[in-house]
Specification:
Structural class: alpha+beta
Number of helices: 5
Largest sheet: 8 strands, mixed
Strand order of the largest sheet: 2-3-4-1-5-6-7-8
Strand content: 25-35%
């Protein structure tokens, strides 16, 4: 609909704009780790201490929507597919809803095999009593790790690190600036509606 009306549509895939993730993408694109072979990610949220997009500690609420997969899961899948590129060959996934959970699919894992041969494994949980967020991308000549969304390492060396509140602020500001730029220049933004639909669609093979 936006395309037919000549409007700019952008999806809030904020991970793409967070400093640690954005640098991770650049280093992959620049060939700093060689061809990606393996991606493994864990997003374990302790709902007793989870922080919302403003960095405030809150209980889980209906703000999450009806499914963890479509909330946080969509961000992680989008970022990984955008960062490593290529086409998805196979998809395997499973989920479970914990008792008393206020969202469906409160815990899930997904595995993707890319046509390049790269294997992707992502696990999310809102039932975990341990908060643990990490994304590791193993390449033929180097390994990147994003830790707790704010720290990027390559082969054990810290490339960027920041506070959680600054991470969220900078990501949202960069995201909004990209949207404004696209509108003013009559261009398609990064994470345009068309692009994100294509990225997520690649995971529904």
């Amino acid at each position: 609909m936006a395309g037919r009306r000549g409007l700019c549509l952008m999806v809030a895939q904020t991970q793409r704009f967070a400093p640690a993730y954005a640098l991770c993408k650049r280093r992959i694109t620049q060939g700093r780790i060689g061809r990606p072979l393996l991606v493994t990610g864990r997003w374990m949220e302790d709902r007793r201490t989870r922080r919302n997009w403003q960095g405030k500690i809150t209980e889980m609420s209906r703000e999450l929507g009806d499914s963890l997969i479509y909330h946080h899961g969509s961000h992680t899948v989008d970022f990984v597919l955008w960062a490593i590129g290529g086409e998805v060959e196979k998809v395997h996934a499973a989920s479970i809803t914990a008792r008393r959970a206020i969202v469906h699919d409160s815990d899930f894992s997904v595995m993707l095999r890319m046509q390049s041969g790269c294997v992707v494994s992502l696990t999310h949980s809102f039932t975990s009593r341990i908060a643990d967020q990490s994304l590791i991308i193993v390449g033929e000549s180097g390994t990147l790790r994003v830790l707790n969304q704010t720290r990027l390492e390559q082969d054990g060396r810290v490339l960027v690190e920041g506070a959680f509140d600054a991470h969220l602020r900078d990501a949202i500001l960069a995201q909004d600036a990209e949207f404004a730029r696209a509108i003013l220049q009559g261009d398609q933004p990064t994470a345009s509606g068309t692009e994100v639909l294509r990225e997520i669609g690649r995971a529904h093979v």
